[in-house]
Amino acid sequence: MSHKNDTTVLIGGNVYTLAGTESEEYIQRVALYINNKFEEIKKSDNAKKLSTRLVSVLLEINIADDYFKAKGKIEELEKIIKAKDDSISNLEQDVISLQVKLEELDGERSKFNQRIEALKTEIDSYKAELDEYIEIFDHEKTE
User: Fold this and answer.
1) Side-chain half-sphere of 15: how many Cα atoms within 13 Å?
2) In 118-139, which positions are buried (b, 16+ CB within 10 angstroms) versus exposed (e)?
3) Between the CA of residue 27 and those of 5, 24, 35, what are the distances in Å?
4) What confidence category does residue 52 fall into, taking pLDDT thresholds of 50, 70 and 90?
């Protein structure tokens, strides 16, 4: 079980002691956020006419608005991340396909190089044979 932290905070000019398992810094940040929202409402022109209860409701609405906007942004970012993850997966598949194709082409290149070497050997053999015929022909010509 987590240890509870008692933290004294200031919201709307009132001092409260909040207890929670979060750090004191976190609780202070939350309280500061609420206090800032509270001050925004109090600064409005009609705020002096509002009851404490209505100010609390407006504060709740403002916080809920921020929450839903943040939630919407998170959902939007999650969609972007999903799209990028999908793109990465597709690119990884493309890379794998290209690697397989490259290996196939390397195999074909190796076969072509072997064939070229065999043809060079065959050409050398024909040259040697041709040289023999030329030598015989030259020898017969001189006789």
Assistant:
1) 3
2) eeeeeeeeeeeeeeeeeeeeee
3) 9, 5, 12
4) confident
Distance of CA 46 to the CA centre of its chain: 47
Burial class, 74, CB count within 10 angstroms (exposed 0-12 / middle 13-18 / buried 19+)? exposed
Q: Is pLDDT larger for residue 140 or for residue 110?
A: 110
Any idea which residue has 């006419």 for tokens?
Answer: 49
pLDDT digits (tens, 9 = 90+) for 8-26: 999 989 999 999 999 999 9
* 34 neighbors 59 (Cβ within 8 angstroms): yes
Residue 72 near residue 66 (C-beta atoms within 8 A): no
